[in-house]
User: Fold this.
Amino acid sequence: MSMTQHAGPAVTTPPASGPKQTDGRTARRPLALRLLARPEVGVFLGAVAVYVFFLITAPPVREASSMANILYQSSTIGIMALPVALLMIGGEFDLSAGVAVITSALTASMLSYQLTMNVWVGVVVALLVSLGIGFFNGWMVMRTGLPSFLITLGSFLILQGVNLAVTKLVTTNVATDDISDMDGFDQAKKIFASSFDIGGVQVKITIFYWLAFAALATWVLLRTKYGNWVFAVGGNKESARAVGVPVNFTKISLFMLVGLGAWFVGMHQLFTFNTVQSGEGVGQELIYISAAVIGGCLLTGGAGSAIGPVFGAFMFGMVQQGIVYAGWNPDWFKAFLGVMLLGAVLINLWVSRTATRR
Assistant:
């Protein structure tokens, strides 16, 4: 005897009427909180606070010429902070960035002067040297798998020693010779170290370069495939490699971008002062990295922007010049630097936790 079971029709209970229920995962956070979670907004507010502080405590800051000096100081930091920030987004560091600037300037100066050549020859050779340093750092990191901190620390020590030793060997001095009377100097100075009169105020060309480079870097990060690669290799290089991202090319090219920035700033210093001190540049790498961190670039990589380091560099220039205009001991600059860096790290920690909170 067989028994057949018949399934009854499914009973569907209509949803209860009333307001839509949401849990913590789908609740939309207020706009103000979402904006504050953006690192660019945080560092912008910090830059405004620093500016207002010195506007009150240092009356000379209110003058247009003083602001031009502050922006100039910020630009010399910001131009290098941009490629350093891109490298940090890509998950790496470069501790040789500061002395690489001096290496570039020394190369152009000594090659041109000692061989009595047009300064543009030295400029081009210095570019090749700077790109070569960046390539070496990137290639060593990818080849050995060692942390970039160790590789570039070695490069930092090598370049520091070479800068001093070669300069003394070639010039019998710790500084290069004056190249202001050499062929091509005036043309190079117009490109790398000229000034413009705007409303009776002398404005350095590096300010315009700084802002233009920041706009270009922002476009690259947000609108190009290469920008996606940078974020991908900084987040997880193995996952990025698995989906076809050229990890080696991306990371090596980021180190070479730092070399390109070092070359540009080195040329500015050379054609501004006509000579170069071989022992300079030590410690500047920390300024560049700090400006990037204050600008919202996470130390773990995979997050950041090009706009944030612009405001980070402005804060550095504002503090460095503001202390002078306020008549304070300039030694306090390092203390302000430490406070700003610590504050930025804490803000970045809050941002990362806010972004991952459900």
Observations:
- The radius of gyration is 26 Å.
- Confidence is low (pLDDT under 50) at residues 1-27.
- The longest strand covers residues 195-198.
